[in-house]
């Protein structure tokens, strides 16, 4: 998707990052960034008011598995007046870069689905 602001995982700030994970529930449960907010792509329009509580003056960084769904979400958010940035390579790159991943299942090893 051309024209969507994009940042690589290595360019993301280590702290103070507002990360929106738009993957499905099973993907989120298997492994996600510790401080991410989970809003599946299909629920984003109905839950957009939740973003107002998250975003101060910092951009919303949007992540999915590899970057496709988050690019669509980023384009929609920016068209709706938000400052959103797609995370290139998604959670696969997040994990490859050595960023923290946690699972929702007790005792389960986090994995990126």
CATH class: Alpha Beta
Query: What's the mean pLDDT score?
Result: 92
Q: Quick one: overall form?
A: globular
What Rg is obtained from the alpha carbons, in whole angstroms?
Answer: 13 Å
Beta-strand fraction estimate: 5-15%
- Number of DSSP helical runs: 5
CATH architecture identity: 3-Layer(aba) Sandwich
**CATH fold type:** Oxidized Rhodanese, domain 1
| Terminal Cα span | 22 Å
Question: Reading side by side through the largest sheet, how are the strands ordered?
Answer: 1-5-4-2-3
Please tell me the total number of domains. Answer: 1
Question: What assembly state would you assign to the polypeptide chains in this entry?
Answer: single chain
Count the E strands.
Answer: 5
SSE string? EEHEHHEHEH
Q: CATH superfamily membership, which one?
A: Rhodanese-like domain
Structural class: alpha/beta
Low-confidence stretches: none
Profile the largest sheet. Answer: 5 strands, parallel
Protein name: Rhodanese-like domain-containing protein
Domain Rhodanese: 13-103
